Amino acid sequence: MKAGIVGLPNVGKSTIFNALTAAGAESANYPFCTIEPNVGIVPVPDERLEIIHGLIKTQKVIPAVVEIVDIAGLVRGASKGEGLGNQFLAHIRNVDAVLHVVRCFEGEVTHVDGSVDPIRDIETIDTELVLSDMESLEKQLDKLQKKARGGDKESKEKVAVLEPALKLLEEGKPVRAGEWTPEEQRVLRMAGLITQKPVLYVCNVDEDSAATGNALSAKVEAHAEAEGAGHVVLCGQIEAEISELDAEEREGFLADLGLDASGLDKLARAAYDLLGLQTYFTAGEKEIRAWTIPVGAKAPQAAGVIHTDFERGFIRAQVYALADLQQHGSEAALKAAGRMRAEGKEYVVQDGDIMHFLFNV
pTM here? Predict the structure, then answer.
């Protein structure tokens, strides 16, 4: 599961990506400086790992991660091939969620449109994505409608979903604005529509606004709430500085700025949630580890992220809650108190479960 960072040129997109992945110096300040998408594996902060580590001593603690893709800056006309439009649109189709970086700061860096207006910037990108989806959907529907007229059942079912989606796009609305059943969403995913993907708006503010946001980020927040999307406020320049500090220096630096956590920690967590992911833990002498699974995954699927053999030969899972570990102090005490339970193949894993798997291959 991947989240793609998108935005107009010169909004601080690559600065944020580089800070996220500790990828080094920021790219040069001009459009299209990121030509091929860069991919970073970003740890997801989770205080539960340290709580478990305080009770179960181990050699290593390994967090969950989210995959972030830095995609070339888009310009007006991208849907018609302007700038790096074709590459941009191809790359964004391959991610599962969109982190839309919006410039919410004034300054010396020249905006591609000559002035700072976050809502205009959002609408510029939304328009290009809508136009791209319209073109794609019109081509797909032309073929499907011919098959449907010939009596093809599957094509009829797809047309029944894609025609209303096209109508939304023609009204200038993203596909995600519609109400779709799980089966309809599956059809839309197969159609590869960009505007179906969930979006998180990332407000890149000036240093003085990192803790509270500003008037520009407030506009983005209102826009996000109106369309049911999330938002995060951060300062890319500050995050770039934080990424170069060790843990102790970072804590003091954040305190001086009046921040309880870095903006990038909040962004990584929000991206994880946006992708519909959750965490379960394994804990033993060698390592305590957070494993990533889709929300709603059952126990065999959860076992399969460790190794495919675990899923294929799944027998049962031993499961307990962090709260019970905190109360009883050890796995041995948990077992003695009857707080470690056995779960079978139909068990839906809950976020934060601590699990051991029994399997036979």
Answer: 0.83
